[in-house]
Amino acid sequence: MHQLIRPTPYIVGMHLHRITPVIAFHRIKVLPREATKYKFIMNFTVENRIKKIVSKSINMELSYFDQLKCCGPRVHSSCNGILLIKKTYIDPSILLWNPVTGQEYSLEVARRSPSSTYYSACGFFFHPKARENRIIFIYGEGQFFKSSVLSVTSTVLRVLPGFVSHPPDVNRAPIILNGALHWMVDDHEYKRLFGVLPHCSNSIVIFNMDQEKFSTMPHPGSHCASERRHYCMGLLEMEGHLCFTDISRLPR
Fold first, then answer.
1. Of the segments 16-20, 37-41, 235-239, which one has the largest average pLDDT value?
2. Strands, E assignment, 37-154
3. What would you measure as the largest C-alpha separation in the chain, in angstroms?
4. 4/120 Cα distance (integer angstroms)
5. C-alpha distances in angstroms, 85 versus 60, 62, 110, 121, 163?
6. Where are the beta strands (DSSP E) in the chain?
7. Banded model confidence at residue 2, pLDDT cuts 50, 70, 90
8. b/e per residue, 174-213, with b = 16+ CB within 10 A?
């Protein structure tokens, strides 16, 4: 379990040195006669002389309340070979799974207060100075967005000071680059809390890992029309650069 939640420097270095891109996809299968139990199956492509698919799976159980929430369990992000699986779209309950060793570790994060909304993991990363895996949570508290950071090693949850002006899209994994995590803004949640859509000048949300502070920046190109389409935009990393995609501008 120690290597699952806190990889040694040797393990991390070996993983980063040997890492090769793979294609992975998952599916969920309901177990016979067990309406709340599921088999979570991950399929990985293995690049060898002949490309083949390797399957790994774990069993998980969802309560009736979990099943009523939007979306089912799915992989949100990965860090040094460990997958972060979110049981539902807006729930702090998560599962860490190492498909190579088969180790798994469940985390149940209590809401700060009954009024907390939108409480969800939005980022999973390895802090280079603290040498530990950390998870970022974002949630609504009254008329503001707040955030907290969980140390997976100590399971200590720290509420970050101040407020988050723009919520990141928790449905997509962040792009980690140059010591920071990057997401597109969540238009829906911003409008739900403030009654208006976020401006394009604050459409990319950034979290600095060392300072543990959020900031924003504009997306490339011209401003969106009156109907924002930030959900059609995405971020990716390519050759050490942060890149931007916008499928809303594709010809129909």
1. 235-239
2. 37-46, 52-61, 74-79, 82-86, 94-97, 104-107, 117-127, 132-141, 144-151
3. 56
4. 22
5. 11, 13, 17, 10, 26
6. 24-30, 37-46, 52-61, 74-79, 82-86, 94-97, 104-107, 117-127, 132-141, 144-151, 156-159, 175-177, 180-184, 204-208, 213-217, 233-238, 241-246
7. very low
8. bbbbeebbbbbbbbebbeebeeebbebebbbbbbebeeee
Residues above pLDDT 90, as percent of the chain = 31
Tokens of 11: 């393990």
Q: What is the pLDDT of residues 158-196, one digit of tens each?
A: 999 999 999 999 989 999 999 999 999 999 889 988 899
The pair phi, psi for residue 70, each rounded to 5°, is -70, 135
pLDDT of residue 41: 78
Q: How confident is the model over 189-214, as a mean pLDDT?
A: 92
